Amino acid sequence: MSIIQTNISLKPYNTFAIDCNAKYYAEIKSVAHLKEVFANEVALQRNLLVLGGGSNMLFTKDYDGLVLKISIKGIEVKEIGDDVLVTAGAGEVWDSLVKFCVAKDYAGIENLTLIPGTVGASPIQNIGAYGVEVKDVFESCTAFEIATGKLKTFNKAECEFAYRESIFKGKLKGQFIITSVTYRLSRIPHIQTHYGAINAELERRGIAKPTIADVSEVVAAIRVSKLPDPSTIGNAGSFFKNPIIDQAAFDILLPQFPDVPHYPAANGRIKLAAGWLIEACGFKGMLEGNTGTWKNQALVLVNHGGATGQEVYRFSEKIINAVQQKFDVVLEREVNIL
Q1: In this structure, how many other beta carbons lie within 10 angstroms of the beta carbon of residue 32?
Q2: Buried b (16+ CB within 10 A) or exposed e, 173-209
Q3: Rounded to whole angstroms, how far apart are CA atoms 57 and 236?
Q4: Same domain, 111 and 170
Q5: Domain-ending residue, one of 50, 70, 90
Q6: pTM (2 decimals)?
Q7: 89 with 46, same domain?
Q8: Element (H or E) spanning 157, and its range?
Q9: Is 224 domain-assigned?
Q10: Cα dihedral 19, 118, 164, 257 sign
Q11: For residue 214, is it within any domain?
């Protein structure tokens, strides 16, 4: 019996809760499952979509191809002095891994608490929050090469990480399926609290010397206060990337908008807060049909129930146009559009 199913609803498998169907669908629980799927030559000819937690995509139509839901589980730990190598299956829920590591006092990913999605997506997207990115703790990942059916290991340099980018979104897009990821964590914490929201919440709680558990708890509280729960209202978290502009453009922008939040980026460039730009255009909490922005965070687009992907996409276009007109800054979608 083939593990490939036909005409399966994807509504339970995307956090935007967009109602659409996949022409073909298979749940992958092992490398053996991958080999079984791609032993079928027809599978290689189908438009392929690899799905983790479905938390970083917007379906605008039915998917006329093969969807592979990656559900490979398992966590292994190897201690090397003060370092700890933690290897997790690509189908592990990201926040479950964070909780596991915090409980064990393995430091390094506590700032990434409550980011939705699965482990396999973490290096693809180079997920990040509150001053930390996956690349900071990434050791290696193992991936299945579709063309050969063989496993390959990628180290940090080979992944070509950048802001919300990696080689798997670039030159190797569609060629590999990540099966596991190894992170190099530490028993000696290097607490990262330089983002103002974390420091403010720690001070409010009277915590002067935070542990990684304190940081994780505070980050969770901040995220819950700002972001909607996908189990109650459809969303994909941050819909847009924080734009990065050059110094010359920033020198023009700052005198006009002296309150614009900004942070140093690579190569002397400046990162802006997309949420602030969107809110300044009047979109925070806006409702339009079945979609809109979240009441507490303009960066998050939501499905209030029954929204189509096209409806959400059109609303995102309005935001992009408004921000460009007001600030001469072009927002880029962080969410994958399908």
Answers
A1: 9
A2: eeebbbbbbbbbbbeebebbbebebbeebbeeeeeee
A3: 7
A4: yes
A5: 70
A6: 0.78
A7: no
A8: helix 156-159
A9: no
A10: positive
A11: no
> Would you please indicate which residues are annotated as catalytic (active-site) residues?
164, 238, 334
Closest CA to 69 of 89, 46, 45, 53: 53
Q: Of 163, 186, 209, which residue constitutes the final position of a domain?
A: 186
- Tell me, yes or no, whether 58 and 107 share the same domain: no
Instruction: Identify the residue whose tokens are 């509504």.
Output: 11
Nearest to 239 by CA among 194, 283, 174: 283
Same domain for 121 and 135, yes or no, is yes
Amino acid 42: pLDDT: 61
Tell me if 61 sits within 8 A of 337, measured CB to CB. no
- Provide the pLDDT confidence category of residue 105 given band limits of 50, 70 and 90: very high
Question: What percent of the chain has pLDDT above 70?
Answer: 97
User: Could you tell me the residue range of the domain that residue 90 belongs to?
Assistant: 75-186
CA distance 197 to 193: 8
pLDDT at residue 1 is higher than 70: no
What tokens were used for 243?
């734009």
Residues 65 and 82 in one domain: no
CB 82 within 8 A of CB 101: no
Residue 129 confidence class, pLDDT cut points 50, 70, 90: confident
Residues 80 and 59 in one domain: no
- Parallel, antiparallel, or unpaired for β 63-70 and 48-51? parallel
Q: What is the pLDDT of residues 245-282, one digit of tens each?
A: 999 999 999 999 999 999 888 888 999 999 999 999 99
User: Is 193 within a domain?
Assistant: no
Domain count, the chain: 3
189 vs 137: CA distance, rounded Å:
12
Instruction: Say how far apart CA 186 and CA 306 lie, in whole Å.
Output: 45
**Does a structural domain hold residue 139?**
yes
Give the pLDDT score at 192: 82
